[in-house]
Amino acid sequence: MFRNKTLALLTVIVMIVPLALAACGPTPEPQTVVQTVEVEKTVVETVEVEKTVVETVEVEKEVTVVETVQVEVTPVVEEDATALPRDETMYFNGQQWGPVVCWNPYSSSCNNAMAIAQQDNARVLMFETPYLYDMLDGNSYPLLAEGPYEWNDARTEMTFKMNPAARWSDGTPVTAEDVAYTWYANVTYSTNAGNNFKDYIDSIEAVDDQTVLVKAKLDDEGNAVNPLMVPAYLSGNYVIQKAWTEALEERTGGDATEFMADAAEDVVYSGPYHQYFADDTKVVLVRDDNYWGQDASMWGQLPAPKYLAHTIFKDNAAGSVALAQGEVDVSQQFNSNIQVLWLNYGLPVSTYLPEAPYGIGASLPTAFYNLESYGLDQLAVRKAIAIAVDYPTIIANAMTNQSATFDQVPRSLMNPTPGEQALYDHEAVADLQWAGNDIEGAKALLDDAGIVDSDGDGWREYNGEKLSYVATCPNGWSDWQAAIEVVAAAGKDIGIDITTNYPEWAVYQTVVTASDAPLPEGYDIFMMWSDGAGPTQPWGRIRHLLSSEFVGLANNWNGNWGQYSNPRVDELIQAIPRETDSDTLKEMYTELVQIYLTDIPSFTLMYRPQSFHAVNESVWTGFPHQDDGTEPPVPPLDCMDGWSVACLYNVTLVNP
Length: 656
Known about the structure:
- The structure is a single chain.
- By secondary structure, this protein is an alpha+beta fold.
- The chain is 24% helix and 20% strand.
- The chain starts with a strand and ends with a strand.
- The relative contact order is 0.13.
């Protein structure tokens, strides 16, 4: 008898026992996997072989034995490389929709909401401006600048000093040369900033390393064309390093398109945060612990959060859930029935104002008509749609009462703030204003214009062609989408076929801002924003809504997207900035309101806060709210725009 070890194959059923995972990672369910392994096993078998004499012997024979055993194995679980410590991270929503395209501060197409937004209250997390505008008191406070700016007696030249402590991320000083070269580049390469201000600023010069001289464009009489626009440039537009700009010019060969399309991954910045991580799920900025602003001449400290993170949510609904669950600290999106979170559920969620409308109404989300669409060149059609819309439903349902009504604040070109409301004669335009839901009035208007349903299909025709339109806004912007649905319903009520469509923002923005080409099909009635509060308001808002200077403009992020043109409007827009008499200004603004409510090239759908600003104080506390005692007052602009960035230096951890 021979006993030898033989190889057998064992099919092993393995029960995986998971390890505890990191806090940010999901716990996997136990898994059963089938794994084939080789083991050694001794096998003895008796067989018969034929010989002259039959006998029984033991011989070696290879066989396969299948056994089932249970073994414990430890799965390898990789940690999320993008996971952030919760007590060092402030999370946002409502700013970033879709992945970041670039980090180029000269570009207006980076889709990089956390880092780049040059506007009345510029976003100053990564790139910085000479001054910060505070919408609550109307003042501008130095950032890269040192002290206030000064006009000469004729108000044709402005001078300011740079803060000698200001540094770029590479450690070199921020100088007057950087300010001057940024202006040169903006004009040379026709950036949005250059296009916006080149008609008002003649030059920006470096007198010395610390002194900047801004010369205004002059009219034929030697007066500044628009003295409002000079300080607006300083609080709304970035200073970009000269040395980096020259490197950008060299690698793009002086081509304007390439210059603005460059991804700028190597960009030099001066702000407290810079790029850390970005993909199609989130964007993260990380604090620069060498940030110059911790100098006593500025903030005297670093901002509290080490990381600023923005999850890219599918839509407002997903963002609202994250806010309620404490996964978002600062929410700049529309959150339906926001008050329910604290009234019904007792969550540590709050808004700037404790009662409706919960925020400071400052901007006017507007439905623009594509004036090239068939029939929308007819005033009767435009007015009929506008007066038929059920605005109370938009405000109550789409806005969940986070807006004043048009009965409370009759429509004009002004936002609801007392200062702007005092700038026009309400009685002079009362007969032109409407509060909405006037179905019978709209029908009568169309009937009188001969725009009727002549074939009995339920839809009106103009010159024999059915009036059929598409109303649109970005997908996922739930308050805007709800408003557009109400607009479409109004069309049905008065016999005009209006359907809806919601492109993704990445597509929508490229279409609407290409004013040098006709709008394509599907953009007959479309929503865009208007200016909020800023140093040039309400003049700036009116300009962006009505000025013909934006007609045919490529890369038009300014306004008048429906391409309206009226010479008298242009004349008034040009005259207002130089006018100093308050009575005359009131007459001019009243006339502009009259023209707007008569021609109706667009119409306001609601009043909206400058920014939605809701906070969950599960992790961080000390956010801005009404009467919080801050001086200067910190506005509710989500801790990143203009003077609101001071919020990042005021917040503390709930549980340090």
